[in-house]
From TrEMBL:
<feature type="transmembrane region" description="Helical">
    <location>
        <begin position="33"/>
        <end position="54"/>
    </location>
</feature>
<keyword id="KW-0472">Membrane</keyword>
<protein>
    <recommendedName>
        <fullName>Alanine and proline-rich secreted protein Apa</fullName>
    </recommendedName>
</protein>
<keyword id="KW-0812">Transmembrane</keyword>
<keyword id="KW-1133">Transmembrane helix</keyword>
Amino acid sequence: MSEQPWAGHHGGLPPAGGHGYTLTIPPRRRRPWLWVTLGTVLAVLAGALVWLVVDTAPDAPPAARGEVGQTKVVRASDGNSTLAIPVDWEELPDDFKAEGASLTYGQIFQERYLMMFTDEKSDYDDFADYEDSAVMLMADLPSEATRVGDREPVRVGGLSGARYEVTGTFDGEPCVFWFTLIEGDRRYYHVMTWTLAARKETAGPALAKVVDSFQESP
């Protein structure tokens, strides 16, 4: 591959959408993140990804043990929101970002990834429509044994929302995703995080903490 790995990465990531996976977009209305997210997830999780095994023994470095540590505030590229992420997370290079994503960060040693999208309210009937569309696409994740968990009502940055846990197997690798949908004052937001299923116990709470730091900008 000609692309250079991003900071801390010892494996190869294919360019976003590089596996030719396509989805047919319904003509009813524009729903950008619903389509680009799945294509990017496939690109990241498909066979070209080399998983980095990290020792999680007690004497392993903090990053390997799953500790969150210090954070830094990053602003979405559209300027509409912020998140507080661990200082050792890196922004993925342009070749590995989903088109339309306002934030794309991760930590390869911990196998923790995050993408955020912003959508205009005018593209949906209401938040229920936004959420229903998301659940439909979650169930259609092209993985083995995809399972969408129960709806979990959440409050994120003082805003109402819902979170869903989705599990599936990609190229033999069991993975877990969390889809957090947020009803902002001016826009709708979707924050998707994911990790290997084997890392769920440590990664899950840490990823939730990052998502829960969401703030809609004035």
